[in-house]
Amino acid sequence: MQPSESSWLKTLGRHLCNKSLYALNFCSELLITPDDTLLLSIEAYGDNKTTRKNALLHHKFLHHNLTVEASWPDLFVDDLGGYWDVPFSMAIDLASVASDSGASYHFCINHNAGQPKQHEDQLTSAVAMTLLPGLFIKNAFSFKKNVDIWRSKAPKLKMVQPFDILLSNPHISASGILGAALTACIGDNLVRSRGEDSLPFKGLTLRAPVVNSTILADIFASISLSVQYGNFQRLFLDLTRFYARLDFPSGSKFISGATHLAQDLYNSHQPSVEAIQAICPKATLSLQQQIAGPSVSELIQEWHSITRTVAGM
Question: Are the beta carbons of 134 and 87 closer than 8 angstroms?
C-alpha cells in the first residue's frame, strides 16, 4: 500500500470514528394566505449537539416583497471560509419587485444576540464585526436604465421550441445602475468605511462612541454590455453570446484612489498600488457558444483587481 493511500485511509477512519454519518431535517411549509407563506424547519447533524431551528415568513405586496426570518443558532461563513455560530439572529427584509428599468430600493434590518463562536471549534480567523451582538440597518436605493442598441425583428423558426426561451432573442444592449446605500450599526457590530485606510477620502462616516453606533453612506454603480447572435433553436451553432460587466462597489473608495493618484502624478511620484487598485472596477466577462442541441460551452472570467501588472510597468 502506498503511503498516500495509507494516510487517506487513516483520515477517513478517524472521521468515521469521530462523526456520525447522519443528518436529520424536518421542514414544514404553510400557505397561510395566497400572499403569505410560513416556513418552519429544525435540523441536526451527526454527533453535533447543536440543533438548528429556523422560521421564515414571506409576504407578497403589490410592488414589494417582505421577508421576516429568525434562526437560533444561525450559521455564517466569513470571507476566509471560516464558519461561525451566532446564538440568535433575526432579519427583516423589504425589497421592491425587480424590474428591467426604473427605480428600486431595498431595506434590511438584522439583529444578532449572543457572542458568536467558530463552528466545531475551528481556529481560522478573528470574528467578523458584523456577527457581533447589535442592530444592523441598511437601506439601498438604485436606478437602472436599459438601452437596446439593436434587437432582431426576424421571425423565429415555426413549430420549433427554443432550447431556452431566455436566450432566444438576438440583440445588442447595454444597461447601467447607479445607486446609494446608507448603513447604520448600533452595538458591538460596528463596521468601517471602505474608504478608510491610507487613502485621503474617507467617505461620509458619522460615529457616536457614547452609544456605540456608526452611520456610513456610499454610492455604487455598474455598467454592462450584452451581445447575442442566434435564436438557440437550431441543432448546431445557433447561439453566440458575449456579456461584459464593470462593477464599482464603492464610490468613496473610487474617489479616494482617484484623488491619491492625481496627487502622485501632480507631484511626479510613483503611483501607489493601493490607489490604482481603488479605481479599478471588478470586471466580469462571459462567452457562451452552442455546440449541439442544448449543450453550450461557457467561459466566465472575473477580475477583482487588474492592477498588479499595471503597477509593475
Answer: no
| Count of Cβ atoms closer than 10 Å to residue 93 Cβ | 16
Q: How far is CA 19 from CA 13, 49, 220, 263, in A?
A: 10, 12, 45, 58
Alpha-helical runs (H) found in 215-250: none
Spatial CA neighbour of 88 closest among 128, 135, 47: 135
**CA-to-CA dists, residue 68 to 37, 60, 62, 87, angstroms:** 11, 12, 17, 17
Grid coordinates given for 68: 421576516
Amino acid at residue number 297? S
3-state secondary structure of 2: coil
If you average pLDDT over residues 102-121, what whole number do you get?
A: 84
215: closest CA among 240, 191, 198? 191
What residue has cell string 471560509? 81
Interatomic CA distance for residues 158 and 164, integer angstroms? 15
SS (H, E, C) 135-200: EEEEEEEEEEEEEEEEECCCCCCCCCCCCCHHHCCCEEEEEEEEEEEEEEEEECCCCCCCCCCCCC
Total residues belonging to the chain: 313
Going by the DSSP 8-state scheme, the letter that residue 11 receives in this structure is H
Each residue's pLDDT tens digit, 28-85: 989 999 999 999 999 877 666 678 899 999 999 988 999 999 998 888 877 677 778 8
How many whole angstroms separate alpha carbon 35 and alpha carbon 114?
Answer: 33
Residue 137: which residues within 8 A CB-CB, separation 6 or more?
A: 108, 109, 110, 183, 184, 185, 186
